[in-house]
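Exam prep: given the inputs below (a chain plus flavin mononucleotide), describe the expected output before reading on.
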Amino acid sequence: MFKNVEGPEAIRFLSTKPTMIITTLHENAKVNAGVFGAYTNLSRQHVGIAVYTESDTNRNILRDKEFTINIPSADLVKKIKILAENLPPGISEVEKAGLTLKDPLTNKVPSIAECAAAVECRLDKVVPVSSHDFFIGEVTGGWIKQDFVTDKGRLDVFKSRVFKDFCYPEPYYVLAGEIIEG
Ligand SMILES: Cc1cc2nc3c(=O)[nH]c(=O)nc-3n(C[C@H](O)[C@H](O)[C@H](O)COP(=O)(O)O)c2cc1C
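Solution:
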């Protein structure tokens, strides 16, 4: 059911620009989850994410130098509101949302099994940008649901029904419409 990948080619699961759930570990080993959209591919193995300095995700990444990007399908849309809450470190958003943790392959951060794919990263650089830090992560591995992988090893945006965009702070999300060949 899962196709596991050890190595930077797991970056192919981010070939679209999806809404992401980032999991990190609190100091007490509970899994924290936050929802993020300010993301870009930077190289064949690097991704960049802008994370508010006062968030748990920011603190956990600075401390542990690891994070995992989980890519939710449209069927998780109601869970996103819970995952975007700022809960104290004793309470895990993942548990509150009733989601299942999956053991990591290449870092120490569990992923969310109900997602379409997950990409494990190690922190490479931090660039402070006003109220946010721009974290540059190196992809170390990940997994994708077998049904959603294209013949080129990428995430199929239509079959997986991952979000292509969102209208934050409104709770509106956008699915891929149509591909126009250029
Ligand atoms: C669709 C969506 C996109 C978001 N994108 C970002 C983002 O790119 N950067 C950011 O710092 N916060 C973003 N947020 C807000 C965080 O999810 C929110 O601050 C959350 O409390 C962070 O979780 P944490 O405190 O557990 O890290 C977004 C929220 C939603 C719902």
